[in-house]
Structure formats: structure tokens, C-alpha cells
Design a protein that fits this description.
This protein has 229 residues and is an alpha/beta fold. Helix content is 53%, strand content 15%. The structure holds NADP nicotinamide-adenine-dinucleotide phosphate.
């Protein structure tokens, strides 16, 4: 498949794109954009329309760890964060899914997290923003699946990427059990398989799939409430 890559660091994207072009002959279009800016999704959509690129697979993957809703007192920072994590995903779906419906084919993966699966005391930003993606994806899937469009919220657990270095949590990573960590290609493979099968929510990683039903139980929620009080 030909690819459109979107991120802020264009050099990084180029280093991903080059071997794809050279070794696999994949056409790659790179768009530098900051998805925490309100107008970014519309700019991406307009640029692709101008180039005549039709998007059949939309992967809303960009994301980062959060600050703390109460302790960090600059709300503008939180608003930009929620723009990236929540609004940009809704906006990308708003712009790209109607074209998929018209063509009778489309696949959307919204990268959420196992952090969406149970509320805990904490920053009150990351988990809730990912929970929105689960709920929105389920509802969107029900709305458009009759038009040949499948939508899936992909919920990974700990994954080896740059995420924890960017978040400044490499020490936590080093101290946590290795068994909880998956490679990104496992997450990607499971996500693509799930959206193809029409699953609206995919928990990624065997361990996390085993734990998830317990996370959903009223007893776990009761325990988290007790731990927080
Ligand atoms: N790693 C984990 O343990 C884990 C677990 C569960 C869920 N997730 C989710 O998986 C997704 C991918 O994260 P990752 O683990 O691959 O982390 P990562 O290695 O830090 O990658 C994050 C990606 O998002 C892009 N990005 C970040 N902020 C952006 C912005 N404002 N505008 C445009 N692009 C932006 C980054 O590119 P630029 O910096 O160049 O913009 C980068 O390509 C995220 O949604 C994350 O919440 C990760």
C-alpha cells in the first residue's frame, strides 16, 4: 500500500519513508503537521484532496503521555493536549470517513490504550482521552459498518517505542516486568487483523487480553475506588 505519513518531525518521517520507497517501491507522502493545532486535520485533508490521494486506511496513532489536570495549572497546555488526543481524531474521522462511505470501503484504527479500560486516580487526562476513542470508535463502527467501513479502537499495553523516553519515564520502564512489554509490530499486526475482521475494540497483547475482563468487573472498579480513598 502507498502511505501518507503525518507527524511534526519531517526528518524522522523521511528516515522511515526512504527504505520503504527504495526497498519496497511504496509511494510515501510526508506531511509535517502538529495535530494539537485546530486547523491541522483540515490542512492535511485539503493537501491530499489537491494531490488526488484517496485514503482507504486511516490510522489515528499520534499521541503522548499527559500532565496532571489539577497539579499543572496552565490549562492552555491541557487544551492543546486534548486537541491532539481527542479532537484531532474526531476531526480526522469527520473529514475522511464520508469519502470511505461514498467509495464503499474504508478502515479506521484509532490507537487507544489499556489505560482507557478502567478509571484510576491519577492525571485525569491520558486515560479519559483514550476512553473517548474507545467509545467513539464503537459508535462510529456501528454507524458506518453497513457502508463497508470498519472502525476499531486498538488498545495496546506497554509497547517498546519512543513513548516512555518522551514522557521521561524510562526508569519506570526499566523497573517494570519485561513480560508486560510488547514490540510495536505485534500491536500493528493485531490492529490490522482486528479492523479487517470488523472488531470495534481490540485489546493488544495476550496478557492484556487476559486481564481486560477483570478490569471491566465491578470488583476491580470497587478496588480502584478503595485504593484511591
Ligand atoms: N508505547 C506505549 O507503551 C503505548 C501504550 C498504549 C498506547 N500507546 C499509544 O500509541 C500511540 C503511538 O505512540 P508510541 O508508543 O508509538 O509513541 P512514540 O514513539 O512517542 O510516537 C508518537 C508518534 O506521535 C507523533 N506525534 C506526537 N505528538 C504529535 C503532534 N502534536 N502532532 C503530530 N504528531 C504527533 C510523533 O511524531 P512527532 O514527535 O514527530 O510529531 C510520533 O510519530 C499513542 O497514541 C500512544 O498513546 C502507546
Amino acid at each position: 500500500m502507498n502511505l501518507v505519513l503525518v507527524a511534526r518531525r519531517e526528518e524522522q518521517m523521511e528516515s522511515v519513508a526512504e527504505p520503504l520507497r527504495v526497498r519496497h517501491g511504496i509511494e510515501t507522502t510526508l506531511i509535517g503537521a502538529d495535530l494539537s493545532e485546530r486547523e491541522a486535520p483540515a490542512r492535511i485533508h485539503a493537501e491530499l484532496a489537491e494531490r488526488g490521494v484517496k485514503v482507504d486506511y486511516l490510522i489515528n496513532n499520534a499521541g503522548a503521555s499527559s500532565g496532571n489536570l489539577l497539579k499543572d495549572r496552565d490549562f492552555v497546555v491541557h487544551a492543546r493536549y486534548l486537541e491532539l488526543m481527542v479532537l484531532s481524531v474526531a476531526h480526522m474521522c469527520h473529514l475522511f470517513v464520508p469519502g470511505m462511505q461514498e467509495r464503499g470501503f474504508g478502515r479506521v484504527i484509532n490507537v487507544s490504550s489499556v489505560a482507557a479500560r478502567v478509571p484510576r486516580a491519577g492525571g485525569c487526562l491520558y486515560g479519559p482521552s483514550k476512553a473517548y476513542l474507545v467509545h467513539m470508535s464503537e459508535e462510529l463502527h456501528l454507524t458506518v459498518r453497513g457502508d463497508g467501513v470498519n472502525v476499531c479502537a486498538l488498545c495496546p499495553g506497554f509497547t517498546h517505542t519512543e513513548f516512555h523516553a518522551v514522557a521521561g519515564s524510562l526508569e519506570m520502564k526499566a523497573n517494570s516486568p519485561k513480560i508486560l512489554w510488547y514490540d510495536a509490530d505485534v500491536v500493528v499486526r493485531e490492529g490490522l487483523r482486528a479492523v479487517e475482521r470488523g472488531k470495534p475494540v481490540q485489546i493488544s497483547g495476550r496478557i492484556y487480553r487476559f486481564v481486560d475482563p477483570f478490569m471491566q468487573s465491578v470488583w476491580t472498579r470497587w478496588l480502584f475506588r478503595r485504593m484511591a480513598s
